[in-house]
Amino acid sequence: MPRNIVELYTEEDIALLERRVKRHRAALIVLAAAALIACIVLAALANARNAGKLELAAVLVSTVAGWICIYDGIFTVSAGKKEIGHANMLRSEPRERIDGPVTVTDERLRIRGSITVRRVEVASETGVKKALVHENRAKRLAELPASAVYMAHGYAAAVEVAE
Amino acid sequence: MRVLKNILSQLHSFILWALASILLWAWVFGLATDTSYGKKVMIFCHVPAIQDVELTMDLEEDLPEGIKMVQVHPFDYVMFDTVSITRADILIIPAIDVPEMGDEIVPLEGETGIQVYDPDTGEGVLLDYITYGDEAYYLYLGAGSAHLKDGIAAEIARKLLDM
Fold first, then answer.
1. Which ipTM was obtained for this model?
2. I want to staple B46 with a disulfide (CB 3.0 to 4.6 A). Which of A88, A89, B5, B75 is the partner?
3. In angstroms, what CA-CA distances link A44 with B21, B31, B56?
4. Quick count: other Cβ atoms within 10 Å of Cβ A63?
5. Alpha carbon of A103 to those of A1, A14, A121, A144, B86: distances in Å?
6. The whole model's pTM is what?
7. Under a CB-based contact definition with an 8 Å cutoff, are residues B25 and A43 in contact?
């Protein structure tokens, strides 16, 4: 039966991730600059009568904008950069092939300061081998009818599926 | 659900940012609505309640030359800024505070301060702005005022008495 190797991260996937990170980073810079300018304008307009209300408005604007920047900065930009680094590592490092059906478990691990992964089990002839897969690729891996997995540094990098 | 989990995982960052935002804009608005002692007139009132914003705005309608702003503070403000009261230009204080203030106050004219509220008759000045307690209140100039020599403290004090 003809076999086909499916990469979990293709060049297009990485390019897409890079564009997404750039887009979000630019949006965050614009949001932060707009919030800062708005707050400075509010401070410049302050007088004895309106200072309390304008200060409250400035605090709200900067707090909400800051929260958006923190959230998106951590969970989109920073996480995206880590995922790009992870994907590049998977594509460049030497791989080990393990034959056997692949199962993605529900066990989720957060590697401190790095990516979140799911545990993968490969039922090989010599026993169950354990591997990891990036959380964002777990669903894709689970849906593939894989008969073998290519691992790099203990992470699933590609799988072999029937044509 | 995932968003909520993400938010909870970074809750400390969100809380810290909100606190930093409050402190930052309180400081900025403090700077934006303040000026040097020589360019402002500070009035401290040790009274149960005062409409400080309204009194400030009415006094600022006609300021002496060289004065940019008037600041009216209740005595509670002293808790946050102990320096300001020693530089106060005008003080409205209950009779019981007069011996305590000692050298920090000087009468506008004569030997004693001007009585601005009589608890027996309920008559007094600035009744539209100030709620007095059940005792006599007096107006004094601050001994540390930057406007004793140029007469501006006395000018504003007389304006208060005529309002």
1. 0.81
2. B75
3. 17, 10, 19
4. 19
5. 22, 24, 5, 10, 76
6. 0.77
7. yes
